[in-house]
Each structure stands twice: as structure tokens, then as C-alpha cells.
Amino acid sequence: MKTLLAILAGLSLCANLALVAVLFAGRSDSAATSANAGASSATPASAIAPAEPGPDTWATLSADDLPAMVQQLRTAGFPRELVRAIAVARIREGFAARYKALRPDAASQAFWKTATVDPRIRAAEFQLYREEQKALRDLLGADAEQPEMSIYQNRRFESVPAAKLDDVKDALRQHEERRQDIYANAINTITPDQQRRIAALEKEHQATLAGILSPTELEDFNLRNSNVASQVRYELAAFNPTEEEFRTVYRLQSQLEPYVPNMSQEEMQRRSEAQRQVREQIKAALGPMRAEEYTRATDYQYRQTSQLISRLELPPETTMKVWEVKQEIEGRANTLRRDTSIPPAERTKQLAALAEESTKKLTPLLGGARGMEAFKQYGGNWLQNLTPRARPNSPSPTAVRIGP
Hints:
Elements: H1 2-10, H2 13-24, H3 31-36, H4 66-75, H5 80-102, H6 119-140, H7 150-156, H8 165-184, H9 192-210, H10 215-225, H11 227-235, H12 243-253, H13 265-286, H14 288-297, H15 300-311, H16 318-338, H17 344-365, H18 369-377, H19 381-386
């Protein structure tokens, strides 16, 4: 009991109890409270009619029987967040000694020295973490999920039929644990071999999901969760696609084999050609007008400019106006560079004039000097390329004077 009271004190439960008393003040006791007293510990708190906590609530808690303690807290009417906080603290206390045994000298590690962790220790810590999370799931059921993750989780699984949800979550959990096993053996960086193992694991994971979900359900799930979908969302941020356009691009991008490090020259060429073909297929599927917008919006500098315009809280159409200035100036700059009849000094002078003209045109579009300075650092690299960089002066071949 002393241990439990210490945990409760650490969680500032006195303040929480006062809050609970206010929340539940005026609610009459219900016969449903006693009817739910023997319910399973996995029963969500929302399924139990809360009652006002009595003066003997803490004294009667089953400190050494976690399922009984959780049920008592739920029956007493405590919010699920508070019940979860207490359960997490108790479970962590139970694992603390095992964690400490893995790194007994961690507390005495000198702050100025780098702590190199043996991959075997990291793997053991991963295993302990899994056991800890399983104990929490077994104790709390659905309430084990962190409240702040509920919105993310709801969106992640919104397309999965309710009857298949548990199987999908189990498959994801096993997949993540196996990924952790690979990362646990990494030392500072992920090796090419580990990257290949992760890619193979992803293929196996997709096969597992395909055994649970129908093809349509699997695609809908991957549209929300896969690495390919995340990459497509990033690339199309400035394109503003419709749902159907996003699905079209995703399906075509999914045809590409995932990139893995240390590809041979031949493999890189094949992948580059495959990427080119996919981009052509995407443009054909989008139609001429949207294909042109897609080409522009997926340009790295255009995307950077779009993000900057958003951060500066300028009208979205500003991105296109800035892009038009860039295209015009770069076109004129390329003409100057190709004209061999222009002496180098004169070419440099004219390029510098173009850079100055660009600044005058862009500054008002970007909301003033502050926006212009931000653009030079984020999306405006092309401005720096207008003016050739001066080469450092070579040291004189003559003798160098030493001394006064």
C-alpha cells in the first residue's frame, strides 16, 4: 500500500480527486454501479455508470491486485485518463528493476562521454518494452491506448471493417516488433543489409494484410498508412489533388520497387527509367492541363516556395507569381550564358543586373524585405546562381615576406 500511495502522490491525485468530486457532484448513486462492479478489467470506463468517490476509496484499493484496483477505480467513477495514469505507473514500477539491471552504470555515466549501447542490450530493452505494453493491454483493454493518440488511430483505421480491426492491429504490432528487432541491432546507422531486410519485411507484411483485407480494403488502408502514400502526399502538397487524382498517382507510384541502398549501376538505371515511365503515365492519366500543373507542383523549388508562401500567410496564388518571375529570369539568364559573343565581364554584369531585377520584382510579392530574405534561404537558391561566385585569389608565386 505504501508503494501505491507514493505513486498516487507523485501523480498529484489530491488535486485530481478534488476535480473528480466537482465533476461528479450532484450525481445520485445508481444501481448500475454495483451491477458493473464485477465486470472485466477490459471494460471501457464509458460503459460503467460513475459514482461519487467515497471517503474510503483509497484505503480499500487493492494495491497488489492490479485488475482489482483498476476495477475499483472504474467503479468509483474515476476518468479513464486517471485510471490509465495509475496503471501505467504501477506497471512501470514493476519493470523498473529489470530495466536498471540492463544498464546498471547508466546513472553514473559521465555527461561528457558518449554512451555506446551494446545492440544486445538495446534488443533486450525492446523486449522489455513489449512485455510492458502487453501487460498494459491485458490490464486495460481498449483503454490502454493513449488518449492523445485516439484521433490519429481513428483516422489510421477508419477504412478497416470492425470485424477485421483486431486482426489488422495484431498484424501491425507484430510487424513493428520485427522492425524494432532489426533496428535494435543497428549501431548509429542502418546498414544496407538492414535496409534490405526492412524492405523484405514490408513485403511480407503486405502479404499478411492481404490475407486479412480484401483488395479494396487493403488499398484504402495503404492509402492512409503506407510509406508510398506518405511520399505521394508530400510530393503533391502544392498540387492540391482531388481524392481520385491522389488515388491515381498512388496506384502508379506503387508499381515502383522500393529504393534500397547500394544498388548497382544497372539497378539504378532500371529504377530511373521506371520512374520516368511512371511520371509519364501519371501525366497521361491526369490530362494535359493538370499534367502541366503536376509537373510544376512536383518541382522541388516550387514546392519549397509554396510552403514558404503558406508560412508567410500570403495568398496561395503568390506561389505561381513567384514561379513566373523565376521562369522568366532564368530563361533570360540561360540565353546570356549561351551567347558566346558576349565578353565574360559583360556577361557577369548583365547577370548581376538580372539578379537585382529579380529582387525588385519578388520583394513586393513576398510581402517585403523579411519575406525576400526568407525566400533566399528557402526556395530561392536559383537567385544565387545568377551571379557567378568569385574564385579565391591564388597565392602570389613571389616570395612571401615573413616577420615585421
